[in-house]
Amino acid sequence: xxxxxxxxxxxxxxxxxxKDKESVITELVELLDANKLLTxxxxxxxxxxTREKTRSTGIGAGIAIPHGKCKGVKELVxxxxxxxxxxxxxxxxxxxVHIVVLLASPIDKTGPHIQALARISRLMxxxxxxxxxxxxxxxxxxxxxxxxxxxx
Length: 152
Known about the structure:
This protein has helices spanning 21-34, 41-54, 110-124, 127-134, 139-150, and strands spanning 7-16, 58-60, 63-64, 67-69, 77-87, 97-105. It is of the alpha/beta class. The chain has one domain (3-150): Mannitol-specific EII, Chain A (3-Layer(aba) Sandwich). Strand 2 and strand 3 form a beta hairpin. Helix 1 (21-34) runs antiparallel to helix 2. The longest helix has 15 residues, at 110-124. The mean pLDDT is 95.
């Protein structure tokens, strides 16, 4: 699975304006909704925030992958952004987050959801690539970096 198969360039935002975990998640859900990828914005937001309360999706190394499964989407959707300021996501390494990748998927489609989480995690293991993403000047540059990385 390539992330560019699910991530639309219009669903990337650099920089994110939110100052905390909930506002950043809300901002990314609103971006998906503005691009007509959701059937129930509030349902998606609630599923992601509920999942976040269960266990933080701050996976460490400055990355968070908030995600949820709900009836508010017809297929797996993704939004991504970079925060210029530190965001406390209660990450497993207790470090602040700068790169946020949000996934929402239908309840009955687990496979693509798991594949996307794995793909994101794999890409973020590349420290040089992760630093380029974090320092992207704008959404277009971030999307281009991902596209180029996936065609390497």
